[in-house]
Amino acid sequence: MKTEELNDSSLTSIDEVATNGDIILVVGLEKRKLQVNSGVLKNASKVFNAMFGPHFSEGQNLPGNSPKEVSMPDDNADALTIICRILHLRNDSIPDSLTSSEILQIAIAADKFDCAMRLKFHVAQWLNPGNMQDILELGRLSVASYILDNAWAFGQLTLAMIVRSKDSYIPLADEFGDLIPWKTFCM
């Protein structure tokens, strides 16, 4: 990750998750800018605590005269935006429902940054399958519940897959085999 001081020309398209935040996360290939508070992130996650601590360049010279940019090109911008909004208690800008793909991306990012427990109540709402019948959508939610260690939702979602879908489970192994142990699909 690369850090640099924010300059005046880059102030135009910043999502102010925290209005007076000391960090600008530059996320994904689209380089979405999220102004966040490093203290909030440090309290929510051991990964962020280490990243913005004194032993990494991202944590050096905080707070400065202006927010510091932290490049995160390998992360999903939509997922990290929602996670940061939840962590900063920005409930006014958190969607009530998401697609199964969006939920899976949030689960992957929450696992990477070790902050899944902080998302618990939002995730519980999002993991509800409703009347969903598509095997891949149910599979995405099942994998998300597995990654987020939500056993109850995993049980409900896998039951929904068995009862509602007449499709083969083989596409699940192809799409999610690197996210969840293959034995999960074969038992």
CATH topology of the largest domain: Potassium Channel Kv1.1, Chain A
Portion in beta strands = 5-15%
- What spatial form do the alpha-carbon principal axes imply? elongated
Domain tally? 2
Radius of gyration: 18 Å
Task: Provide the CATH top-level class of the largest domain.
Answer: Alpha Beta
Order of helices and strands: EEEEHHEHHHHHHH
How many angstroms does the end-to-end distance come to?
A: 40 Å
Q: Outline the low-pLDDT stretches.
A: 1-11
Q: If classified by CATH, what would the architecture of the largest domain be?
A: 2-Layer Sandwich
Q: What class would the helix/strand composition place it in?
A: alpha/beta
The main β sheet shows up as:
5 strands, mixed
Q: Quick check: average pLDDT?
A: 84
> Percentage of helical residues?
40-55%
By DSSP (H or I, 4+ residues per run), the number of helices equals: 9
Largest sheet strand order:
1-5-3-4-2
Number of strands: 5
What does this structure look like?
With 187 residues, the chain is an alpha/beta fold. The chain has helices at 38-44, 46-51, 77-87, 100-112, 120-126, 135-147, 151-164, 170-176, 183-186; strands at 3-5, 14-16, 23-27, 32-36, 68-72. Strands 1-5-3-4-2 form a 5-stranded mixed sheet. The radius of gyration is 18 Å and the shape is elongated. 40% of the residues are buried. Mean pLDDT is 84; it is low at 1-11.
